[in-house]
Specification:
- There is one protein chain.
- 53% of the residues lie in helices and 10% in strands.
- The strands form two sheets. The protein has a five-stranded parallel beta sheet with strand order 2-3-4-1-5. Strands 6-8-7 form a three-stranded antiparallel beta sheet.
- Strand 3, helix 6 and strand 4 form a beta-alpha-beta unit.
- The longest helix is centred in the C-terminal third of the chain and has 24 residues.
- It is globular and about 65 Å long.
Length: 402
Amino acid sequence: MDPIRNPYAPGAGQRPPELAGRDEQLDRFRVVLERIRRGRPERSMVLTGLRGVGKTVLLNALRSAAVRSRWGTGKYEARPEQGMRRPMAAALHVAVRELGHPQGQEVDHVLGVIKAFAQKDQPGAKLRDRWNPGIDAPAITGRADSGDIEIDLVELFTDVGGLAADVGKGVAIFIDEMQDLQPDDVSALCAACHELSQTALPVIVVGAGLPHLPAVLSASKSYSERLFRYNRIDRLSRQEAARALQLPAEDEDASWSQDALDAMYAATGGYPYFIQAYGKEVWDQAPQSPIQVEDVRVASPAAEAELAVGFFGSRYERATPGEREYLRAMADLAAAQQAAGEELDEVESVATADIAAHLERKPQSLSPARDALLKKGLIYSGERGRIAFTVPHFGRYLRAQT
């Protein structure tokens, strides 16, 4: 097969594997946009799932849907060490420009509020040292500049929502890696979304994050479950995975045999990122169409090597030696449970007490390693006393390295 025409290469083709089986989320979001446009109450949205299921690709597709509806949109990726003010201000600045509101005092006022909100990121800084968000309008004094992020974000969203309502449109802010927001910012975001739900202003937040994101939101505000519509993004079914492979191939007048599709599902587990990685290598190795099971077998080592470096290895390298010991203990325990015939979930969750016993250490002594891995996004706690990898098949990778 021609590598130049490879439809599984990142960014290639018109049908990315990550969007296969996501029609329900896309259709539901279009309904949400229309309901908000008509002034009807609707909740913001949160996408959750493991790494590799295509959350970011879906988030971008939802943003494209909002743009096609002529909404103002902005997006940023949360980082543990970064506060909300600067990235939120930049995202809202883009959204206001996309609204296409006639220039005038109303637009200048909202831009001035955004600027004031952003510059409060540096309290006490001299005027010449303040960060400039690239907004020409002067900062508005007394609006979204109190220094209390919860008060300021509510006022900011209210003013932006009012501007959008003036032109009969809406504003959607997309936040990736939402679980990495700082605690005060999570609380402020919940409070702002609560205010939007009370006033029916056309502003919506769409977040994406790891499976424990709902617990992060709930810990901040007890009423968070009423603010967001949660969507669990999981691996693809066998039929959806087959479509993810067949449709891009059809765009290049190629096809897959049924045996090859079965072999691909066994190798990838239905995870979109793996489907794309294996699909790219198989396409490059296959001599002709239809692609056969032997082509999958021949290309698998190259795909596994690529994943070992770019997907698994890049994350493993971020861990310290003590943290790697903790990760390997998780992998060993999951394998032991599986060998003993115990039912093991796909993410290989294990009890923290079992890890301490396996390493012959006191649980308290392992808390620093566990907390660091949680902050780095390598593990998460789906339920009290248990932890799991955020990366599917990570335990298998670790066992292979050992």
